[in-house]
Design brief:
Rossmann fold; alpha/beta
Length: 149
């Protein structure tokens, strides 16, 4: 995969967390393309190419999904369940990025085939480093089945 083709779908209802994520990932070279949706229903609309995400040029297929678990309208676990049960979506890696350290949430996420489970650190510096490390992993080392649309 070319280094500049990393596309991240960020599913995050907290605008501050979304902005921190955007700023941290933008520091990577090359910066990944970040597409943000604010809740679970919007994530599924994006992935199923339903309006307002029906234009593939404006809403390209993600290389990886960063998914908060505590979302309005449809929980992150419900979104994860639908992604991993859909033959057309299940190959997309999904990384939980959540404040929940509850064992039950982790067990449920892994039972639904989440690819990784990251807990948001409270401290800004640690949160920033987590995102930088995440981005470097996906930009440089990891390879995915679905290269590009």
């Amino acid at each position: 995969m070319p280094l500049n083709s990393l596309r991240i779908l960020l599913v995050e209802d907290n605008a501050d967390h979304a902005e921190i994520t955007r700023r941290c990932l933008h520091r990577l070279v090359p910066p990944p393309k970040l597409y943000h949706v604010p809740h679970g229903e919007a994530a599924l609309d994006y992935l199923h190419r339903r309006a307002p995400y029906d234009d593939p040029a404006a809403s390209p297929w993600p290389t990886v999904i960063l998914l908060d678990l505590r979302l309005p309208r449809l929980s992150g676990l419900e979104v994860l369940r639908e992604i991993k049960q859909d033959a057309g979506l299940k190959a997309i890696p999904v990384v939980a990025l959540t404040s929940s350290e509850r064992r039950q949430d982790m067990e449920q996420a892994y039972a639904l085939n989440v690819n990784a489970y990251l807990v948001k650190p409270v401290e800004f510096k640690e949160f920033s480093q987590l995102l930088i490390d995440f981005g470097r992993f996906w930009l440089r080392w990891n390879r995915t089945v679905r290269q590009a649309d």
